[in-house]
Design goal:
heterodimer, A: alpha+beta, Uridine Diphospho-n-acetylenolpyruvylglucosamine Reductase, domain 3, Enolase-like, domain 1, 3-stranded parallel sheet, B: Ubiquitin-like (UB roll), DNA polymerase, domain 1, 2 domains
Chain lengths: 297, 163
C-alpha cells in the first residue's frame, strides 16, 4: 500500500492524476472502517488532511463555498446560522469524536444513500465542486448521486468544496434511528423554505438507492402556498395540505427492506417527518411568525 | 474452533512508513509502519501504550478516545500516517486525576474496559463546560459505550468531577 501526503491542493490533484485508484482520506470515518474490518484494502491512500485549502470557507459570488475538509464540528460552530438545515443534520452525525473528524467532502465521496449531509444539500440546491489537473467543474447536487455509493466523479477528480446560498428562510432536518447518537439513518428528511423566491425544497435520505428529492411534493405545497397567498399572509397551512405533502414525500421515496427497517416503515415515517418538518419550519421565528415549540402536529 | 481475526489484528506485513509525532509530551518516532495502520495500533502495539482500548475498530464505542492536536477523536479512525507531526495525548498523558477519582468515588467503573475512553471524553467535556447539565453529559459521552451499562453512575461521576 502506498501512502501519499500532499501539502497543497495542486500536489493532491497531481497525485490523483498519476494514481487514479488512490483512495482519498480525510476524517477516516469511512475509509478506516473499511481497512480495519478488512472490507477492502486500497492500493494506495491519499491523505488530504494537510491540504489547507480544503479546510477553508468563504463567500463566492453570493454563495457560501465550504472546503471539503471542513469538519461537522466546525460546520456547526462556524456556519450554523447560515446553513441551519445542514447544521441540524451535522449535529446528528455520530458522536463528538466523529464530528471532530468527519467531513461533508467525505460524505459526498462515499455517496451513501444514508449520508446525513445529503438531504439538506439537496434541499439547498447545493453545488459540488470537483477538480482534477485539467480543471474544476461544479456539479448540481441533483446530478451528483448516480447510485448506491456511486457519484458523478471521474477517477482523476477530488472533491474541492460544496456551495450553497446562505439560508433565505427556515430550514429543518429530521432523522429516524434507534438512538439520538451513533445512528445510521433509518430514513431522514430535510426541508428548506425560500420566501424570496417562494420556493420549497426537499431532500430524502436512506430511503432509496440514492438521496432523493420529492419534486411533486415541492410543487404541491408551493401551489397551496401560492393559491392561498400564504407567503404574504403567513397563516397556518391546513392539516389536509400538510398530510398530502407528507404522502407525496413518502411516494417520492424508493425504499427497500433492510437491517435498519422495512420499506413500509420508511414510507410511513417519511410522511410524518415531512409533515412535521414543514410545520416546524413554517412556524419558526425566521418566517416572521410567533415562535412555536418543537411539537409535531 | 477458528476465531476470525481481521483488520488491524490480522496485519503482519511491515510497511515503509515513518511516523514522527509527539505522544504525551514526548517526541516519538517509529519506522517500518504499515501504511494502513491505525493510530490506535501504533499507540498500543508499537509504543506500548495500552490504556487506549481496542474494541470495535469502527468509531462506534469510543474506547480508544484520545486527543489529536487537542481534539477528541477515536484513534482507530486515524490513519497512523495522519498523526505524523501531530500532537497526541492518550489516557496515560491526560491530566485527569479529578475525573478518575470521581469515577472511583461514584462507582462508575465496572469491568473497566470503557473507562479510559470515558475519562478522556469526560475530561474533554469538562474543559469546555466546567458545569455540564445531565443532557450535556449525555450528549458529550454519546460516543462512548459501556457494555456493563453503568451509565447512571458514569453521569454521577462527571457531576462529581465538575464540583
Amino acid at each position: 500500500m502506498e501512502f501519499f501526503q500532499p501539502s497543497s491542493w495542486t500536489e493532491a490533484l497531481e497525485i490523483k492524476a498519476a494514481h487514479p485508484d488512490a483512495t482519498p482520506i480525510a476524517g477516516g470515518t469511512d475509509v478506516m472502517v473499511e481497512i480495519n474490518l478488512d472490507h477492502g484494502r486500497p492500493s494506495s491512500i491519499l491523505d488530504l488532511t494537510r491540504v489547507r485549502e480544503l479546510t477553508e470557507w468563504g463567500m463566492d459570488d453570493g454563495m457560501l463555498r465550504v472546503g471539503a475538509g471542513v469538519t461537522y464540528a466546525r460546520l456547526i460552530d462556524e456556519l450554523g446560522d447560515r446553513m441551519p438545515g445542514l447544521a441540524m443534520a451535522s449535529r446528528t452525525v455520530g458522536s463528538p469524536q466523529i464530528r471532530n473528524r468527519g467531513t461533508v467532502g467525505g460524505n459526498l465521496g462515499t455517496a451513501s444513500p444514508a449520508g446525513d449531509a445529503h438531504p439538506p444539500l439537496l434541499a439547498s440546491d447545493a453545488l459540488v465542486e470537483v477538480a482534477s489537473t485539467s480543471g474544476s467543474r461544479r456539479v448540481s447536487i441533483h446530478d451528483f448521486f448516480t447510485g448506491p455509493k456511486r457519484n458523478a466523479m471521474r477517477k482523476d477528480e477530488l472533491i474541492a468544496a460544496f456551495l450553497v446560498e446562505p439560508a433565505g428562510g427556515a430550514q429543518q432536518f429530521s432523522k429516524v434511528g434507534t438512538r439520538n447518537a451513533m445512528v445510521i439513518a433509518v430514513c431522514s428528511f430535510a426541508l428548506a423554505l425560500d420566501p424570496a423566491r417562494r420556493r420549497v425544497r426537499t431532500g430524502i435520505g436512506s430511503a432509496g438507492p440514492t438521496p432523493l428529492r420529492a419534486s411533486e411534493a415541492e410543487r404541491f405545497i408551493e401551489g397551496v402556498l401560492e393559491e392561498e397567498n400564504l407567503w404574504d399572509r403567513r397563516t397556518d397551512v391546513t392539516e389536509s395540505a400538510l398530510k398530502r405533502f407528507g404522502e407525496l414525500v413518502a411516494m417520492a421515496s424508493r425504499p427497500i427492506d433492510d437491517v435498519r427497517g422495512t420499506a413500509a416503515y420508511r414510507r410511513q415515517a417519511l410522511a410524518v417527518l415531512a409533515r412535521r418538518c414543514f410545520a416546524w419550519a413554517w412556524s419558526s421565528p425566521s418566517m416572521g411568525r410567533r415562535p412555536a415549540g418543537p411539537k409535531g402536529p | 474452533m477458528v476465531l476470525a481475526i481481521h483488520g488491524q489484528a490480522a496485519r503482519r506485513a511491515e510497511g515503509a512508513l515513518r511516523i514522527d509525532c509527539t505522544v504525551n509530551g514526548q517526541s516519538r518516532s517509529i519506522d517500518g509502519v504499515w501504511e494502513g495502520e491505525s493510530l490506535l495500533y501504533v499507540l498500543r502495539e508499537r509504543f506500548g501504550l495500552f490504556g487506549s482500548k481496542n474494541a470495535c475498530e469502527q468509531g462506534e464505542c469510543g474506547s480508544c478516545s484520545v486527543y489529536l492536536d487537542g481534539k477528541l477523536v477515536c484513534a482507530c479512525l486515524v490513519l497512523g500516517g495522519q498523526a505524523n507531526g501531530r500532537d497526541v495525548v492518550t489516557i496515560e498523558g491526560v491530566d485527569g486525576a479529578a475525573v478518575q477519582q470521581a469515577f472511583v468515588d461514584a462507582g462508575a467503573v465496572q469491568c473497566g474496559f470503557c473507562t479510559p475512553g470515558l475519562i478522556v471524553a469526560a475530561h474533554d467535556l469538562l474543559r469546555r463546560l466546567p458545569h455540564p447539565t445531565d443532557a450535556q453529559i449525555r450528549e458529550a459521552l454519546a460516543g462512548n459505550i459501556c457494555r456493563c451499562t453503568g451509565y447512571g453512575k458514569i453521569i454521577a461521576a462527571v457531576h462529581m468531577a465538575a464540583t
